[in-house]
Write a structure and sequence with these properties.
Blueprint: H1 12-15, H2 17-31, E1 40-44, H3 50-57, E2 61-66, H4 69-82, E3 87-90, E4 102-107, H5 120-131, E5 132-143, H6 145-151, E6 154-159, E7 163-172, E8 177-188, E9 191-202, H7 206-215, E10 218-225, H8 227-230, E11 242-249
Parallel strand pairs: 1-2, 1-4, 2-3, 4-5
Antiparallel strand pairs: 5-11, 6-7, 7-8, 8-9, 10-11
The protein binds S-adenosylmethionine.
Length: 252
């Protein structure tokens, strides 16, 4: 097993394309009125940089933070290809620091669930609070325990001409944890090379979320069920499976 998102990173945009439209729609709905006032922002756990670049395209001075070297490399390549300014930084969402306080932090596509321990939610909330200016916003989405039950179970596979990806998932209801063992069979001339990695997730209920964010210097403004955003592109995401949140750091 490797650290996650080493091999998967290369195929990430292709494999998870059906999540992009719904996440864009959720961001537009929740942040639509806030974005015109945003000058600096950070996309935390930025993956291949798609959201960071969408915000940079609007003229926002963007930071993009991720733990995976492969993801950061792809984000830098996409920024160079699109000729957009993007500060890509290595960072752990539990401890990252930015060179300046920003107006907005985004953390999309259940990246916040990707921490090893339940207690890490508080560490992330504190690190985000430190990186935001007073009154700044934190936009994020998370998988809920019903989401783990519904779609972190069984085996799914995807095939493209250059890779076959087999994802075997499971969850532990009592611990509110889920995992996905990913086998990638990557075409290399006449051979197929097999690579493995595991993604682990942990989830929290809305009460826990509210308490932790409040204690870390935020008001949790609102949560939206994500299902309506997914209805068209990915109807598998049912009601109660995923929530989109907006939190605001208290003014000084
Ligand atoms: C499901 S992907 C989401 C990527 C991106 N936010 C998007 O919307 O496509 C999860 C991302 O979280 C990153 N990640 C996982 N644990 C992390 C951590 N502790 N700190 C920073 N990034 C992390 C992974 O490298 C990966 O890029």
């Amino acid at each position: 097993m490797n650290r996650p998102y080493r091999w998967l990173a290369q195929y990430y945009d292709e494999l998870f394309a059906s999540f992009r439209g719904p996440m864009d729609a959720a961001r537009e709905r929740v942040l639509g009125a806030i974005l015109p006032g945003v000058e600096t922002a950070c996309d935390l756990a930025c993956g291949t940089g798609t959201t960071a670049l969408a915000l940079a395209r609007r003229g926002i001075d963007m930071y993009a933070v991720d733990l995976s070297p492969s993801m950061r490399r792809l984000a830098r390549e996409k920024a160079a290809r699109d000729r957009l300014p993007l500060h890509v930084l290595r960072g752990d969402m539990r401890s990252f620091r930015l060179p300046e306080a920003v107006d907005l932090i985004t953390c999309e596509f259940d990246a916040l669930n990707h921490v090893p321990r339940r207690a890490d939610l508080r560490r992330v909330a504190k690190a985000v609070a430190r990186a935001l200016r007073p009154g700044g916003h934190f936009f994020f989405d998370v998988n809920n325990s019903l989401g783990f039950e519904r779609y972190w179970t069984g085996t799914v596979w995807f095939e493209t001409p250059h890779v076959v990806v087999v994802m075997r998932s499971g969850h532990n209801r009592k611990a509110d944890r889920a995992w996905c063992d990913i086998d990638l069979f990557i075409r290399d001339g006449r051979c197929w090379r097999r690579r493995r990695e595991r993604v682990d997730e942990v989830c929290w209920d809305s009460g826990e979320m509210r308490r932790v964010f409040q204690e870390s210097g935020f008001e949790l403004l609102r949560g939206w069920d994500a299902a309506p955003f997914f209805k068209k592109d990915n109807p598998m995401i049912g009601l109660g499976c995923r929530t989109v949140y907006l939190a605001r750091k208290k003014a000084a």
